Fold:
Amino acid sequence: MVFFRSHRIALCKDCIKTFVERRVERTIRSYKLMSKGERILVAVSGGKDSLVLWQILTNLGYEADGMFIDLGIPEFSEVSWEKCEKIAQKLSRKLFKVKLEDYFGTNLINIAKIERREPCAFCGMVKRYIMNQRAISEGYQVVATGHHLDDETSVLLGNVLNWQVDYLRRQGPNLEESDGFVRKVKPLALCSEDEIKSYAEASEIDHVEGSCPLSKGATSHFYKSIINQIEERMPGTKLRFYKEFLKAKKEIFMENKSVKLMPCSRCGYPTTAGICAFCRLIDRVKTRIQLFQERTQFGEEP
Ligand code: SF4
Ligand code: ZN
Structure:
């Protein structure tokens, strides 16, 4: 038996599965995330959240395939890929794999060194770009990610604390398609991390334990712990914070002054600058690699 404090309900193994699946189904319906005939691409990482999402969408009868982005993190990326392959077989769905190295000529860790930035500072942008590009080229209408209530509320807290108005405007479980972008949805947005963990256990989903080894010290972890402390004192706050924000958002941003996007002059991806952030990153990484190769060729110290 597991007790979910925010819903004041105790559930057995079988009921947990039904409970979570129903919540996801209701989220999909309420926020018009997707419909049964659409082709959906799930961003899978090998962690519990994305694998739970893939299984739930399949159980609910959606046409959902998986896409794994290999970041080239030693050991971690290989193990993560194996977990994704395993569930793809179980669900009998197609699974794609894309390597970061095919774009940049090197892995995430080296890009971070070249950029002199933390990997998380640009990893999200890179993954969003690749997911969007592959979804379009493979004919998918929707990209689904495993972001859950804890992710969403910690991002919301950060956006409010820093008054990131543009991020707040776009935050939500459904980011509609527009020129150059497929629709991006978060069907687990109203399920807490605990609920997803219980679902993964009840369904015996084999997943990578713990988070990405490069995530240490991320600010999102701090925001999550704050939100969880509030939830501990006042169960139900997390869900209320997020749902009420989604309701209020409609009124606050009614004027809909969204940023003007234009296609990247290099790859066509929508951007506010002439060349998009992804193409600029590729340029920087490749120039540094070339410089490094020239120096070592002439016997200089790199
Ligand atoms: Fe990327 Fe950071 Fe997430 Fe690791 S923790 S996958 S580096 S965003
Ligand atoms: Zn570009």
About this structure: The beta strands are 2-4, 9-11, 39-43, 63-70, 95-99, 142-144, 174-175, 183-185, 262-263, 270-271.
